Amino acid sequence: MMRSKLLSLVPCATGPFRTMSTTTKLTTVEVNDKTGIATLTMNRPPVNGLNLDLLRDLRQSIAEIEGNKSRGLILTSSNPTIFSAGLDIMEMYKPDKERVRAFWTALQDAWLALYGSSVPTAAAINGHSPAGGCLLATSCEYRVMLPKFTIGLNETKLGIVAPMWFMSSFLSVLPRREAERALNQGRMFTTDEALQIGLVDEAAGTKEEALEKCAQFIGTFAKVNPIARALTKQQFRAAELEQLESERAQDLEKFLFFINQPAVQKGLGIYLESLKKKAKN
Ligand SMILES: CCCCCCCCC/C=C/C(=O)SCCNC(=O)CCNC(=O)[C@H](O)C(C)(C)COP(=O)(O)OP(=O)(O)OC[C@H]1O[C@@H](n2cnc3c(N)ncnc32)[C@H](O)[C@@H]1OP(=O)(O)O
């Protein structure tokens, strides 16, 4: 089933490209008419916290980019210092029962869409990228990061646990030993450290430069058969995608059980307070 879905979404090898700019509430898609590459920009102030609506918009924008025959997707942020602060903790703290189910389901959907996207993907990481922000970046095939920001899966520092599929994205970028240590430590890497360890592929001085480097990466596929490339990517990523697809319901229940533990709620409350205090100082 995945294969036929993929074939219908394979990007066109030839133009012409349409100039297009569409905005859902929290994301913008702009297709460059010269390169045919789509830039998907997250725009949810103040920190691109991944709430239900942003996750749904992301998924919708990814589907749109696949549907409009773009040559590739660059994920970035409209915020000059934050790529994404990760999951909106307000969705998990004292959550509404129905909404939190929809929220986690939307996160699963967004990850399946991005990690399994048929088009080449790159992240122009133009700001901090903790936790869910790092998940988005590592779900892409290439990462370019601006200086003096941080990226990583810091879940253990918040007293929460990154699910297996967060780890899968991380593991598709970092060697196993490095990934395990960083996950256990909840380590945030500076741009230089991320570059050194291979968590990001390149550094760039400005957002424009980062976008250009991402476009260059996507351009490396110009002479590759798009169907063969897309099927190769999909096969390479099939195990992780199929694991989540087959365990979605259990993954949701596991999340709900974990998040509703009084100790986890208490920890999230303390963490939120510390973020707010920091903002006041
Ligand atoms: C077994 C399996 C079981 C499964 C178990 C469950 C698994 C869950 C996996 C979780 C994944 C996650 O992504 S959890 C999320 C992890 N994210 C983080 O830890 C990032 C926390 N944020 C930061 O570090 C910083 O905010 C940062 C992004 C660097 C930006 O710093 P700044 O100084 O520019 O901005 P701040 O002043 O800190 O923040 C501006 C405002 O945004 C708020 N804010 C910041 N981050 C926020 C966030 N993630 N969610 C909500 N609100 C946030 C602050 O409280 C402020 O609110 P006001 O004071 O009201 O303005």
UniProtKB/TrEMBL annotation:
Task: Return the InterPro entries for the record.
Answer: ClpP/crotonase-like_dom_sf, Enoyl-CoA_hydra/iso
Determine if RNA-binding is one of this entry's keywords.
no
GO CC terms of this entry: mitochondrial matrix
Keywords, alphabetical: Acetylation, Fatty acid metabolism, Isomerase, Lipid metabolism, Mitochondrion, Transit peptide
GO biological process terms, semicolon-separated? fatty acid beta-oxidation
The record's subcellular location field reads: Mitochondrion matrix
Gene Ontology molecular function, alphabetical: delta(3)-delta(2)-enoyl-CoA isomerase activity
Question: Does the keyword Protease feature in the UniProt annotation?
Answer: no
Q: Which reaction does it catalyse?
A: (2E)-tetradecenoyl-CoA = (3Z)-tetradecenoyl-CoA; (3Z)-decenoyl-CoA = (2E)-decenoyl-CoA; (3Z)-dodecenoyl-CoA = (2E)-dodecenoyl-CoA; (3Z)-octenoyl-CoA = (2E)-octenoyl-CoA
Kindly give the Pfam families that the UniProt entry links to this protein.
ECH_1
Q: What is its main location?
A: mitochondrion
Pathway, per record: Lipid metabolism; fatty acid beta-oxidation
Please, which domain of life does this record's source organism belong to?
Answer: Eukaryota
Task of the protein: Key enzyme of fatty acid beta-oxidation. Able to isomerize both 3-cis (3Z) and 3-trans (3E) double bonds into the 2-trans (2E) form in a range of enoyl-CoA species, with a preference for (3Z)-enoyl-CoAs over (3E)-enoyl-CoAs. The catalytic efficiency of this enzyme is not affected by the fatty acyl chain length.
Give the quaternary structure.
Homotrimer.
- The name this protein goes by in its record: Enoyl-CoA delta isomerase 1, mitochondrial
Source organism per entry reads Drosophila mojavensis
